[in-house]
Amino acid sequence: AALPERRRPGGGRPRYEVVRELGAEEVRWFYREDRKTWKPFIGYDSLRIELAYRALGPGGPAEPREGEAAAVEPVCVRSGLYEVDVASAESYPVYWNQTEKIPVMRGQWFIDGTWQPLEEEESNLIEQEHLNRFKGQQLQESFDMEVSKPVDGKEAIHSLKLSRNHVDWHSVDEVYLYSDATTSKIARTVTQKLGFSKASSSGTRLHRGYVEEATLEDKPPQTSHIVFVVHGIGQKMDQGRIIKNTAMMRDTARKIEEKYFSNLATHVEFLPVEWRSKLTLDGDTVDSITPDKVRGLRDMLNSSAMDIMYYTSPLYRDELVKGLQQELNRLYTLFCSRNPEFEEKGGKVSIVSHSLGCVITYDIMTGWNPVRLYEQLLQKEEEELEDRWMSYEEQRLLEELYITKQRLREIEERLHGLKASTVSKPPVLKFKVENFFCMGSPLAVFLALRGIRPGNSGSQDHILPRTICNRLLNIFHPTDPVAYRLEPLILKHYSNISPVQIHWYNTANPLPYEHMKPSFLNPTKEPTSVTDSESVSTVPSPTTSPVMVRRHYGESITNIGKASILGAASIGKGLGGMLFSRFGRSSTTTPQTLETGKDGAEGDDKKATTVGTPPFPHSSSGFLEPTVELEHRIDFELREGLVESRYWSAVTSHTAYWSSLDIALFLLTFMYKHDQEDTDKANLDTI
């Protein structure tokens, strides 16, 4: 088959007319992760590694001159996430720890077709032989080689014997590798890559210098937004998992960036926050009290369920909070020190948390502490005491207690005042959070159990002030057993409005999320008017009631049996009848559309026209309809495709967020929002 053309900045002219040593731009460096194939570094990285390699001196890394090896600084690669130590030919991550080192190698000779590098030792020998024999000789006119002619009849003008194979030069730039013994490692890798049969004695064509010249222009875009990825429960079981999960999310996001956001000169970086493994907690006390027989199953249970128990234990809660808080601040400080222009250019920070990680992140941002609950409880007890009849003695003691407490508070405040004037308390986090994405999050249950109840304003401030975090988004799969909805905690009637459906990543021209109109969940029975207060009060709690059987809302198709058993994205049924009775008495089976002037996130008044839906009438019963809408939608649900629904089981749905292209597009849509708007505005201005 025809070769890929040698691409190079100067067009198709030969780089060098005569054979000479390879230029730094012709060499290509590679890295290998998880013992897979060698991957080429981008030009910018490869060129800088090669220059560092050459700075080591003529011996290269094998025999660095005294005192000089230390002088070569590690080379920052792969968008600044890794460094390469040229002397040891290894790469390692900058922001997290990894036990497995990532080997790097220098490619000079390459296999035809795959452009995989030949192993370094072989490559060095071939290169040395090539220069000894052909240095200074004229090359063919053009590098854009036509389909290579068979060389069976051609005599080899030069040959080199390697341990288990040999290389024949049929001309200066027709070089073939022949296997002498099919057991040889190099022949094995070559035959596997190219699909030759073991018996085949035909050679493999080799190329000197990489298919593409390395240039410093081939560099990654500047990072304008960093995302901290926070793991949930059970990281004790597998410390490296959050690193793998973040890598999956990063790779998926890269694909989406290339497809949809390639016009933007900026880039979103994902950093794993591995906060659990540094904590000692109880040492191994829990391990020591686990019966032997069930250890395998218990290990799994302990490392996930136990984290929730640790978090509700006053003894260890602070340690978990501090662990995550310190790791977030450490990563941010390290990132800014390595990217000084990030803060200057107004770089933004978002957090993606999974499972229990959402609760801990929320508590760090808001500064919530169980002590608050305790104080509320004491206050309540005091109020109850004052309400009942007391003897003179009791009253006197109570007054004394009250005055003493008052005095104690004053002294504490004065002490704090003195402290504050000398030491100002640093903020809990060193950065403002732009978006807080919760995935598969039990946060709503925790908040409900802390006494948060729906209010009557549609503001996110009710659960998370905008001054702390600009936007809260709660993502879940319909069958995730650990996920709960947040919206009904702000406005109760949202328990009967379906979560926003997340677009499939390949949807053409999807409607922007802020323009999507709220749609009702299906009523399960003939709607009836609700008049007595009793039936309103028996509405199940919006956050803890089980999932209603959902047939079609939005375009989600849910496996009914599964959804009814599993407690995901909870919905209160009772309000269904109440809301639907407002639309006349016709029984409806399609999702209705709730319309008010303030539409979605941006609140466009232009869209206040109602299409095909009667407005809320005032009911004769005097019950005023809830017309308050959320300023921004918070609950977003993955659509279940017909094909994938059978694969998403209760178990996998809690962890399958990491590689979802739909989620990657969703995250980037919100993070690139302002950049995209600025670009669109600039384009309009030019028009």
TrEMBL record:
GO terms for molecular function: metal ion binding; phospholipase activity. Residues 586-595 have a biased composition (Polar residues). InterPro entries: DDHD_dom, PA-PLA1. Residues 429-673 form the DDHD domain. GO terms for cellular component: cytoplasm. Pfam families: DDHD. PROSITE patterns: DDHD (PS51043). Residues 596-608 have a biased composition (Basic and acidic residues). Residues 523-546, 586-623 are annotated as: Disordered. Residues 527-546 have a biased composition (Low complexity). Belongs to the PA-PLA1 family. This is Phospholipase DDHD1. It comes from Aptenodytes patagonicus (King penguin). The gene is DDHD1.
